[in-house]
């Protein structure tokens, strides 16, 4: 499709009639900004595609044996509340670590 001078002039006159002469510079500025943002985002997408590592398919492995459940040690009868809280925090930390190890496996 070839646009000649008469067609471009007709389009410009229609734009002036539709939007008014005062709004056209703002409209053109907004379109220019939008195009710049669009161009930057598409170039970022292309850069991200280039930086992606290649995916290596893992070979099938036999399922791992589930770890036996950990025994919860019973607190000693003469343990203070602070000591019980410390033991519970240590136990929670061990459980979090084993849960994260299971997620990674």
Automatic annotation (TrEMBL):
It is found in: Cell membrane. Residues 83-93 have a biased composition (Basic and acidic residues). The keyword Cell membrane applies. Keywords: Cell membrane, Membrane, Protein transport, Translocation, Transmembrane, Transmembrane helix, Transport. Residues 40-105 are annotated as: Disordered. It is a single-pass membrane protein. Residues 63-76 have a biased composition (Pro residues). Belongs to the TatA/E family. The Tat system comprises two distinct complexes: a TatABC complex, containing multiple copies of TatA, TatB and TatC subunits, and a separate TatA complex, containing only TatA subunits. Substrates initially bind to the TatABC complex, which probably triggers association of the separate TatA complex to form the active translocon. PANTHER family: SEC-INDEPENDENT PROTEIN TRANSLOCASE PROTEIN TATA. Part of the twin-arginine translocation (Tat) system that transports large folded proteins containing a characteristic twin-arginine motif in their signal peptide across membranes. TatA could form the protein-conducting channel of the Tat system. This is Sec-independent protein translocase protein TatA. The gene is tatA.
């Amino acid at each position: 499709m070839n646009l000649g001078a008469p067609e471009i002039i007709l389009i410009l006159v229609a734009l002036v009639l539709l939007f008014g002469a005062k709004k056209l510079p703002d409209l053109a500025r907004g379109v220019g900004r939008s195009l710049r943002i669009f161009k930057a985002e598409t170039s970022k997408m292309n850069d991200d595609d280039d930086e992606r590592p290649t995916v290596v398919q893992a070979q099938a492995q036999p399922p791992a044996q589930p770890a036996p459940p950990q025994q919860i040690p019973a607190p000693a009868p003469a343990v203070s509340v602070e000591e019980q809280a410390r033991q519970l925090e240590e136990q929670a930390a061990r459980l979090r670590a084993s849960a994260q190890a299971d997620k990674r496996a």
